[in-house]
Amino acid sequence: MSEPVFFPRAARTSLADIVACTGAAVVAGADLSIIVSGVAPLDAAEPGELTFLASPENAMLLETSRATACFVTPGDAPRVPKTTLALVMEEPFRGFALAMRRLFPQAIRAKSLLGTAGIDPGAAIHPEARLEQDVIVDPGVIIGPRAEIGSGSIIGANSVIGSDVRIGRDCLIGPQVTIAHALIGDRVILHPGVRIGQPSVDFGHAGIAPAPRGLHWAQGIGRVINQDGVEIGANSTIDRGAVGDTVIGEETRIGNLVRVAENVTIGRCSIILAQAEISAGAQLEDCFAAPRAWGGLAAQRHTSAGGAAGEAGVMERQPGRT
Predict the structure, then answer these.
(1) Which residue, 2, 42, 157, 265, has fewest beta-carbon neighbours within 10 Å?
(2) What pTM value is reported for the model?
(3) Domain for residue 149, yes or no?
(4) CATH code, domain carrying 51
(5) Contact partners, residue 83, CB within 8 Å, separation at least 6
(6) DSSP class of residue 119?
(7) How far is 322 from 310, CA to CA, in rounded Å?
(8) What's the CA gap between 218 and 178, in Å, rounded?
(9) Is 219 inside any structural domain?
(10) Do the domain assignments include residue 76?
(11) Tens of pLDDT along 204-228?
């Protein structure tokens, strides 16, 4: 059986190309004509490959590295062996990420998982739906009446786009995603299995009294608003607002298996790690990042200083954000 190549490398990328695209500092006189063949973790990198030092705890691995070049901080540069070129940056992982974009350009280009071009005949699109030019629709997709999808967007296999939903331009909607009662901005990425716009199962937490016994729960009449550049991980759920909106601010990143309850507001440029839960009505200001040990957030207002963090954990402002 042949080995599949999911992300082919760019042709002939040299160390000079890597230095140019990352801005890394190198020792004077270094041979930058060497061709880079790939990337690998620090303890597995071979000659021809790039790597990076992720944390000081792994510094001992650096001294025995066989990599052609390694991204390191200025403080760790003296520990790089002579056979490995030190690519010195204040943020080594940032340099490594930029290098990967240069080496594997196809990995960052949105495309259909099935290689679909245009609208697959196996999709069911309501005649009242409106799709701009260059939209890609995979097999099994259902698009409801009056839904609108902007140019350059991709709708993955078996996804369901509900009535009146708006999806902006250059979005990537993964397979098996459902979207209802939602406005989706431009350049939004929804990974497989994301659920957007369903009613919450704990309606009363939004400050509205539960229905008397014997009566049906209210289903919520609000919306979900995902602003531009939002990315939501696989199998995460974003409940629609109860009587207002659930809002995800622009450029926010949400990990896999996250639950965002109704009437939550998450500020722009925030990061919510996998398996977190944000309770109904929580208000997160701009540029929050959840600590790794964080489990959830109570229904309070959370300031940029991390105050009012509630019972479940605290939040941190991301460095370098404004």
Answers:
(1) 2
(2) 0.83
(3) no
(4) 3.40.1390.10
(5) 66
(6) B
(7) 24
(8) 21
(9) no
(10) yes
(11) 544 555 555 655 556 789 999 999 9
